[in-house]
User: What shape does this take?
Amino acid sequence: MQTNFLRKLIFDEKSRSLLIQTLVIGLFALLIYLIAQQTAYNLEKRGISSGFDFLHVAAGYDISIRLIPFTSEDTHLRAYFVGLLNTLMIAICGCFLATIIGFLVGVIRLSSNWLFRNIAYVYVEFTRNVPVLVQIILYYSILLHLPKIKQAIVLFDSFYLTNRGLFSPQPIFKDGFSIVAWSLVIAIVVSFFVKRFLKSKQEASGKQYPIFLINSAIIIFTPIIFYYIMGMPLEFDSPVLKGFNFKGGMVIRPEFMGMLFGLSIYTAAFISETVRSGIISVSKGQREASQALGLKSNLIMRLIIIPQALRVIIPPLTSQYLNLTKNSSLGIAIGYADLVHGFGGISLNQTGRAIEIMLIVMLTYLTISLTISFFMNIYNKSVQFKGNA
Amino acid sequence: MSSTAIQNISHNKYYNWLIRNLFSSWVNTLLTIIALIFIYQVGSFCLNWAIFAADFRYNFQGELITDRGLCSKNIMPGEYGACWAIIYARWDQFMYGLYPIEEAWRVNLVYALLPLAIIGILFDKIPFRKYFIYFTFVYPFIAYFMLYGGPGLSVVGTNKWGGLLVTLFLGVTGIGLAFPLSILLALGRRSKMPIIKSLCVVFIEFIRGVPLITLLFTANVMLPLFLPDGVNPDNLLRALVAVTLFQSAYMAEAIRGGLQAIPRGQVEAAQSLGLSYWQTTRKIVLPQALKIAIPPIVNTCIGLFKDTSLVLIIGLFDLLGIGRAALADMTWTKLYYEVYVFISLVFFIFCFGMSRYSLYLEKKLKTDNS
Amino acid sequence: MTEQVIQLEKVNKWYDDFHVLKDIDLTVQKGQRIVICGPSGSGKSTMIRCINRLEAHQEGKIVVHGTELTNDLKNIDLIRKNVGMVFQQFNLFPHLSVLDNIALAPIWVKKMPKKEAEEIAMSYLEKVKIPEQAEKFPGQLSGGQQQRVAIARSLAMNPDIMLFDEPTSALDPEMIKEVLDVMIQLAEEGMTMLVVTHEMGFAKTVADQMIFMDEGRIVEQAKPDEFFNNPKSDRTKLFLSQILNH
Assistant: This one.
């Protein structure tokens, strides 16, 4: 009787799998338990307390780059938000710049000129095979060795490039500027309707309208017109050299610029490869069939090549965005006040709550990653070629 | 511009190539001219800076450079060449870190044996391949003994290791340890047992969702908290743990791609022959899957190699860390271009080499299968 | 005297130093159905691809419907509007529905209103006998259906000449017939056709001229009875024996 039961346990597929899983869960739980025990013991021994109450204690340090007001008397929780905003800011700016550079280089890599193609190739290979941290540190070093404030490089009469950052005029929005801003929003909305209207007219008559040009004109000129109507409600507070520093205006710090250049140029190299292979992936036959039908080049690109290429480009492009966002955590190496540097670094050192803080930081990044992946999956499913293949 | 309107006029394929690629139209010709000007300007500047106008050991007056003050560019206002003396001066640190110089021969031996250790896995048409593969398995023990020490050799603690030694150690060991782990993870993720599958999925997605730096911090700060008294892994080991776990998640995804590409028919054929799960996996599925997955796997390895530079943030002195330390020294400060260009070159050589190998493999796979 | 719609005079083409088309002379009259056969690499596809400028010839003259084929883009566009092409790999646009595939060129090249273009598209879809597939996507269709859609797509531009580049070579055997039937119907309606194919049964039914090409030259050109029963060149005899006896 016993041997039968045992035999069944090991050889029957269902019970075997159950047995294995129970063992695995059991071992795992045991491991967690042991680690937790040991950690609690070690924490107590070192006099480190646990809990998340530290979040409401004053941080005790300043953060130089911030999007919301912050002083050393603000809490660690607020420091977390400042860091999070800084991370998001560099991530968004970086992704934007990287996309522009990446698409440009990707197109150059497909150019019919051998020299241009290979200059771009050299850029891509050098950038991809050197660690991003090295590149960030290199750009930062260069920025730190720009001329001192007294010998600043002057650009366009109002921008000053120095080793403490780029000093630029700060826009001051007077009354009435909100109307200009609203006019832009309305112009964008109107352009959607214009597009729909013109498109249906086009379908009805066959005549083609330059929809893109018309809408661009609407979006660009409407706010400009309103700007003048409202009496130019925009002033600039220019930086003026007083003594050893500039007074007025705003400054873009070298830490931010170093991160921006390092991350963008690095990620752009990968994006360019993605763009290039996306466009190549559209088979030659598609182009030939379009040419045989008499379609002109620009229409072939717009209607046939680019829609198919985008489907191939967007998933890896999104993962490059994720990489850039994760790489922004390297800001700590040059002092850019992102999430890891402030909350994950200084707060951690001051409160000693390593586990809690690391957990929060990792969960934050995880949330960002999963969110982006989630939306990417939805987009991906919606643009799959319908078919049984 | 319709490309079909381009005519190849002559029968000489070199002339045709020139026309097609450089002079096919007015725009193209203009671009060619711009490109040539650009290459000339940038190229000549870089070559001058790096080689022709640069100081290597001696400056333009013939003196040995021991201090940045003696660099030609700091003496003569017109000079702008690189001052490579800093690399010469700090060469040992770049290569070994603070490893005692008398014992450096041990590191050199390990470096020299490394190509022998990996040649067996990289190329399959070499003679005596079997022996090379045996050596691959023996090498880690030899390397560890040589580097760390033991009976007969003085012990050199890992806190003295630095520079290229640390970079290569983390890279090679990380990849080596991560590989079996990643196979298990990839198989586990495809398992039909929900517990195993979920554990693998959670692990992989968690690791891939967080930056490496957070894992390094975690390992650095938290590992001592997890372990009982007396067990205190040194910094390098902690970094190795983080790097290995990180790499295993990414490699697992690459392997999973290979596993997915194997048609179900393979497994069905094996099962109908009576092979067990592990036999099927080991003998039929994995060999094919790994072959397909090698290009993405090599990609993750290149990524890992570059990511080892992050350990400078937790205080370890890898190649980049040594470079930064060299620049902090008052004797050599401000020679940042020289240091970072040198470090970039070293990384470039390794990473570009790996990516060339990956291309070679892809080509080989294509011709093998078709 | 029937109109001459295509003239090729001493046409030569090289890929670098490889001479792929050698002194091709060919005249096609309106309503003719010409079948071109020959071993692979003989240049048959290249020749018809020169007619709508998917490939460019280096020497000689090609005139289509009175317009000479040169580097002039206007001429090329004019010729392409009047010449339809069906490819071996179908080359349907996978991201567009079947109806959109067919209506695309009429809308964007002939600048037709959408409704009109769609009506024309449906009529050609009916002509190739698959009107019910209008809203489906190419990936959901069988090979034979895809090729029929490709034929409808070219016909929707109302060409005077149709070029077929091995239209059934990529199809499973049971689907070849449905495509050939459409082509036969086209021939009966008087379409000028140049067909590169290995389907000799089709050739015997429809062709009024057979051309055999080998190594870049037109080796033999004759009416089907003469061609099949009394080939003049040895190479033609060899080719026919290989292709007809399997």
